[in-house]
Amino acid sequence: MSIEPAGENEVTETPEAPAAPEAPGRAAATKVVAQPMRWYVLRVASNREEQVCDALIRKVKIEGLQDRVGRILVPMQREKRMKGGQIKLYDRKLYPGYVFIEMETEDDGRVPEDVWFLIKDTSGVGDFIGSDGKPSEMKPHDVEKMLSVVEKSAEAPTLAGLAAFKKGDAVKIKEGPFENYEGEIDEVLPDKGQVRVIVTIFGRATPIELEYWQVEKA
Fold it and tell me: How do 69-73 and 98-103 pair as beta strands?
């Protein structure tokens, strides 16, 4: 699954890595599914990922379905950005338009009826990625990669984006008074979170320093 990242929220604190909710468990005789918990991907309305996630976590707890539904996540990567001379923290959604759910399925691969009703009855929810009414299980290496990024970024957010640029890169300015000018990176300035770009202004090569997020590769 290849989904372009987008969407972000400015934050002021470093979050804890996601943890599985407490599961009270049910008697074996009442358990109607036999498959172990695996990760699945749910399509949701754009920019409502966190609202849907919070609503699902709340409803699972109210309905006592923690033995069938584990973690529910909107995977975020915490990044540092230099803006206006100050470093700020942002949460960037890794997969906008999706919520990830760890849950059990029926023997035939379908979502248990009570769990499916709870999910579908939540505002902003679409369908699971899958076919024939069955959600497709995420591959283990994809799950590992997703959780690893979330946990590592929570422990030590980095000055994201700057590492994508190097001296000599052709770039286009996308914000500021020189928007749409094209130039070449003369120097990367990690201490400032900036890049120095050589652009031609009035026929002369002129160096200007820009926040790294103000430019993109041409």
Answer: antiparallel
Q: What is the largest CA-CA distance in the chain?
A: 81
Give this prediction's pTM. 0.60
Q: Which of 64, 42, 68 is nearest to 53 (CA)?
A: 42
- Cβ-based neighbours of 149, under 8 Å, separated by 6 or more: 75, 77, 94
Q: Which residues pair with 172 in a beta bridge?
A: 182, 216
The answer to whether 91 and 30 have CB atoms below 8 angstroms apart is no
Contact 199, 182 (CB under 8 A): yes
Token pair belonging to 118:
């709870």
Distance of CA 144 to the CA centre of its chain: 14
- The domain locations on the chain are 8-159, 162-217
Helix (H, G, I), strand (E, B) or coil at 159: strand
User: Each residue of 106-120: pLDDT tens digit?
Assistant: 989 999 999 999 999
For position 36, what pLDDT does the model report?
81
Q: Classify 8-159 by CATH class.
A: alpha beta
Neighbour tally for 130: CB within 10 Å = 15
**Residue 150's pLDDT is what?**
78
Phi, psi of 168 (to 5 degrees): 100, -10
Tokens of 112: 């248990």
pLDDT of the residue at 187: 94
Q: Domain 162-217: which topology?
A: SH3 type barrels. (2.30.30)
d(CA 44, CA 126): 5
